[in-house]
Amino acid sequence: MAKKPFSEETSRAPISQRSQKIEETDPGSLGGTVKVVIDEEEIRVPAGTTILEAARSVGVRIPTLCHHDDLCLSGVCRVCMVEVEKQRTLQAACSYPVFDTTFVKTSSPRVRRARRNVIQLLLKNHYGECYSCKKNGKCELQDLAEEYGVTEYKFGHIEKPRYEVDESSYSVVRDMDKCILCKRCVRSCIDLQEVGVLEAINRGADTKVVTFLDEPMSDVVCINCGQCINRCPTGALRENDDTGVVWDAIDNPEKHVIIQTAPSPRAAIGEEFGLAPGTSVTKKLNTALKRMGFDKVFDTNFTADLTIMEEGTELLLRLKKALVDKDTSVKLPLLTSCSPGWVKYIEHFHPEKLGHLSTAKSPQQMFGALVKTWYAERNGIDPSKIVSISLMPCTAKKFEAARPEMDSSGFQDVDYALTTRELAKMIKEAGLDVTNLPESGFDDPLGIGSGAALIFGSTGGVMEAAIRTAYEIVTGEPVPFDDLCVQPVRGMEGIRKAELPVKKAVPEWKFLEGATLKVLVAHGTANAKRVMEMLSSGELEGYHFIEIMACPGGCLGGGGQPVPTSPEIREARAKAIYDEDKILEYRKSHDNPIVKRIYEEFLTDGPCGKVSHKLLHTSYLARGKRIDAAQCEMNMQKVKPPAEAH
Amino acid sequence: MAKQCSVNRKDVPEGGSPMCDDTRAKLLPALQKVQKEKGYISNEDMQDLADEFGIHPVEVHSVVTFYAFLKTGKQGKHHIRVSNCPSCECAGSKEVFAAFQKELGISGGEVTPDGEFSLELSSCIGMCDHAPAVMIGERLVGNVTPEKAALLIKECKEGKGAYTGEYSPGAIERKGDILLKPVEPYASLKKALDIGRAEVLQEVRSSGIKGRGGAGFPTGVKWNLAAAAQSDRKYVVCNADEGEPGTFKDRVLISEYARTVFEGMAIAAFAIGAREGIMYMRGEYASFLPALLDVLAEMRKDGALGKNIFGRGFDFDIEVRLGSGAYVCGEETALIESLEGNRGEPRNRPPFPVNTGYLGDPTVVNNVETCVAVVHIVKNGSEWFRSFGTENSSGTKLLSVSGDCEKPGVYEVPFGTSIEEILKMSGAKDTQAVQVGGASGICLGKKDFKRQISFEDVPTGGAVIVLGKGRDMMDLGRNFLEFFREESCGQCTPCREGIPVLLEMWENIRNNGLTEKERSKLYSLAETMQLASKCGLGQSSPNAFLSIIESFIEKG
Predict the structure, then answer these.
(1) B31 inside domain
(2) Residues A110, B531: C-beta atoms closer than 8 Å
(3) Does B511 touch chain A (CB under 8 A)?
């Protein structure tokens, strides 16, 4: 079993649905490995390995649907059925651990008949036509139907929709008519993210996946992370599509349409065009965007650098207040605020800790605020004519852009946030192939970003960027790591801690001399939950700064990124980002010349000054998680229909 | 905040409360309490409980809607469930239901305006020998007629607390040589403690006894595997969730032989090294709970349960937990899921409960009847036990006989008894067919009446439904399919999606007869359901319908 991005010990999955693999056993020891013979192919695997894993290791493909490498075992769709010698019935390869010599047949007449029928049964209530589906061409069910020669609906096909499409959320659209009850979304939401929005209710043929009380997505504790979308095999879950309005803006000659692109989509969009994961296409993408008709193509990394300046300053100011002024009301550790999924998570689940959250806006929103002010002024463009688009790896960015308080420019700062998938679709529609375009640079002046900003895309990146800058501000020297790579905060462990001693300090920050900076990095809200519990219990006493990203792997594993996703794919994307950092001209946020310039000519009272407070900082809402009772009562009636009289 | 259920026990600090004893495993009892006190579980309750158990409200919502007895909408003060199992249907449950509807002025699923009554049709309530039967609140009432409906409503209103026709023990029609023979209290448990664990395991294995719930897994093998499993903690679970339509023999054992059942559990615990036992009893039998608790109290007083049993250093105690109306929880892994406070969805196997059962620990799940049999085996020896029954099916079997016969009730017969003999014993005349094994069993026509009850020929958990001349066999098939549609847990595709397709096919066959095309589709789908479903319920769900088609439709 691939390394899970969440902790198995605290998983809500039933014990039987955990991996059974015995990792500790020395593979050479007696009973440590077992023999498996798959279609004549003989191998030895560690005891407890599933048939599916064993088959994969010898290149035998077994079709799956409910199985996902990021999630706990399930064994409910019954597509991966195989024959196991001495077993009367067929067995689900994904959830059958082998503990002794096992003979498996992955393609017998019985197996093929069963798979065909199971696919037919799934198609029966899978409403709609492929060509009008957002997942057309990328649907796992569609692929299987093709693979298993479905030419007619053997058991019939539903003709009318049963559910209304829930389009209430800015980010996640649910079309339950396409749901095949594989429950990957449930496992993503409850196990992987521990947000707990989706679960199955009722039983038998009445089973369906719902939110609590079947409330619309906009009214429940959904944090818009989109991890469910990344793992949905069909078109039942998707992002709220903004491609139409963006095309309208591009096609409108009155509008000045700018797009900012974040680093994670640039490291992943190639996957939509057949490139291997981890192939960065930044400069080719710039060309594509310009050819599509965007008036300006800017780099979100610029405001990521600005975020470091603002958030880093905020941290140092809080430290000063706490240590020098002995102000006990100062909340430490400071929590990062650039992941909108995480922001909504803390607003729902830990509103009492909002004081710890940095008030600095995310790079997307800082960018939005500056485009319609600084950029508009300097270039003599009417800000009301600007349509500000962002390319993000993230579905929650859509919600963030729409937050009513995000209007410090006098307009909605960011008009539309596109996911990587949406933009890929638009590029294809424009007849462009990103892989075969010439390279071009970003436009001035918002086109320069540092390597520090680039690595924001990976878990630990914000922390590393902040350390590169804050350490240098305090000590006057670069961080003491080889090639500026702050290795202790890198990696894919769910929660990582690091300490950095400040041996000497410049006069302004003298009070920090001899101190040890203690930081923590977490990704995935399941780990965020652990960190919040640690914070409540006092376990994080003495910690100064904590980076939290809602999605596993950070932004590069965001809910708007290409599907599929897996630990290996996320690691490849991370590598692409870290490799690119090393070759950039500027490696530290405070070295970014545009950042220096904007503080000289626009944000003149410096980081965390008055102007930046107005434009670059925000406030939060203590949402809580309780659902309103009266509203519930009304909705309750429709949730569970009374038992039918036969 | 409460710790999550699935936290591995090894993480719980020493001396801390055992995992789940105060956490997720108590969710179902907590929901049952709210249901009982308020008549429903409000959204506020669900959110409160979610906070209390440290889980998400949608998870509570998910559990509540899984169980038929838990309601999210208000229920009447007197909730009336009319059983619609084949035996009850044959005896007129439809007419009874109509009479209740008429008397109360409501239909199924509704509540009277004064909030006094609510009414629903329900799956078999285990009163087939008193068909048609209803459940009023927790009380089981048998032999209801349309005329009696009005009387029962009157009795509810008067609040006398007892109803005409309420179940009282005494349904045994034939006591055989083993199970229903009197046995000296605790003699067997004491003997077990004397001869030691190895000897007990050996005796049970040698007896050749197979699980009495229907699946027929050798009990001795199960016990040996659990005994060999390495763990500080093990569990013995008694499966008293009989829900197979037409089965009621466990009801009789629970109400008349409770001490023997518990003694059997104690012997199992001693053999495998468990200190904790749980009886999971279907919610339909909730009215027996007080009596069971009395028996347990008495056994503790006698020194047969609790610490240091009979001064022999063996600790064991038993807790009774109730189900909440879900047939699938009779499947042992679904039962364990339910005990852990989850939806009763069967688990992947392997791992098997003997290694990874309740709360992840080795668990032996035995049917009520198996527990009773074990008491006799230990007392009288395996050789004696093997002298009854057949080569591969040793001992005797309790049968729940109901339907078109003069003397419905529980019969103890040795394995190898033919259908014909059973029909004779029960006074059945002009029998057209016999459904053996309930909804998951098979339907036998006249040509098969010579066949024998045994694991090698006609295996059964005990249900025998007699269908007299003139009964509509297709109707029986529909009844079973509707039962499965209602009771499927819904997690795996073949069962969830396959059963509604079978019902559509039923309709087609009813209207157009069995065409060749329909026939090949039916057998193909049935094969997939039998081979690819996750649990025994799904695997056996097409059986009854198929055998009806084979025996009564195919021939012409």
Answers:
(1) yes
(2) yes
(3) no
Report if residue B394 sits inside a domain.
no
In a domain, A2, yes or no: no
- B61/A645 CB distance under 8 A: no
- For residue A270, the domain's CATH number is 3.40.50.1780
**Catalytic residue list contains A199:** no
Type of residue at B318: I
Report the CATH number at residue B487. 1.20.1440.230
Q: Which of A555, A580, A588, A589 is catalytic?
A: A555
B-chain residues within 8 Å CB-CB of A644?
Answer: 108-109
Please name the helix (run of DSSP H) or strand (run of DSSP E) that holds residue B172, with its range, or none: strand B172-174
Contact A124 B501 (CB under 8 A): yes
**Given CB atoms, is B501 within the 8 Å cutoff of chain A?**
yes
Task: Give a yes or no: residue A277 inside a domain.
Answer: yes
- Percentage of chain B beyond pLDDT 70 is 96
The Cα–Cα gap between A291 and B200 comes to 82
Model-level pTM greater than 0.90?
Answer: yes
Interval A146-191: pLDDT, tens: 999 999 999 999 999 999 999 999 999 999 999 999 999 999 999 9
Test B532 with A9 for CB contact under 8 angstroms.
Answer: no
Minimal C-alpha gap between A359 and chain B (Å): 29
Annotated active-site residue in A134, A372, A397, A588 = A397
DSSP one-letter code for B17: P
Q: Does B492 contact A190 at a Cβ distance shorter than 8 Å?
A: no
Structurally, how many domains does chain A consist of? 2
Work out whether strand A33-38 and strand A102-105 pair parallel, antiparallel, or are unpaired. Answer: parallel
Same domain, B232 and B358: yes
Q: Which of A74, A107, A140 is the last residue of a domain?
A: A107
Name the active-site residue from A140, A314, A347, A464.
A314
Assess whether B350 and B287 both reside in one domain: yes
Closest to B348 (Cβ–Cβ): which among A92, A114, A632?
A92
pLDDT band at residue A631 under the 50/70/90 scheme: low
Mean pLDDT of B221-229: 97
CATH number at residue A86: 3.10.20.740
Q: Are A176 and A163 in contact (CB under 8 A)?
A: yes
CATH of the domain at B269: 3.40.50.11540
Q: Are residues B36 and B89 in the same domain?
A: no
Distance set, CA B149 to CA A620, B102, B152, B247 (Å): 61, 10, 5, 24
Minimal C-alpha gap between B107 and chain A (Å): 7
Element (H, E) at B251: helix B249-256
Closest CA to A213 of A645, A643, A634: A634
Question: Are residue B218 and residue B339 in the same domain, yes or no?
Answer: yes
Q: Are residues B187 and B134 in the same domain?
A: no
Q: Is B489 on the interface with A (CB under 8 A)?
A: yes
* Residues A426, A280 share a domain: yes
Contact between chains at B343 and A639 (C-beta distance less than 8 A): no
Please give the order of strands across the beta sheet that includes B134-136: B117-122, B78-83, B134-136, B139-141
Q: Which of A417, A436, A455 is the last residue of a domain?
A: A436
Residue with tokens 């019939």: A156
Structurally, how many domains does chain B consist of?
4
Report yes or no on A203 lying in a domain: no
**Interface contact flag, A204 B485, Cβ < 8 Å:** yes
Q: Which of A17, A212, A640 sits opposite B348 (nearest CB)?
A: A17
Is B17 an 8 Å CB contact of chain A? no
Range of the domain at B112: 78-158
pLDDT band at residue A473 under the 50/70/90 scheme: very high
Residue numbers of B between 380 and 419 with CB closer than 8 Å to A: none
Domain of A73, in residue numbers: 15-107
Q: Which string of DSSP letters, residue by residue, matches A1-41?
A: -PPPSS-STT--S-GGGS-----SS-TTSTTTEEEEEETTE
A541 in catalytic set: no
A227 within some domain: no
Q: Tell whether B436 is covered by a domain.
A: yes
Q: Do B356 and A205 touch (CB under 8 A)?
A: no
- Residue A164 a catalytic site member: no
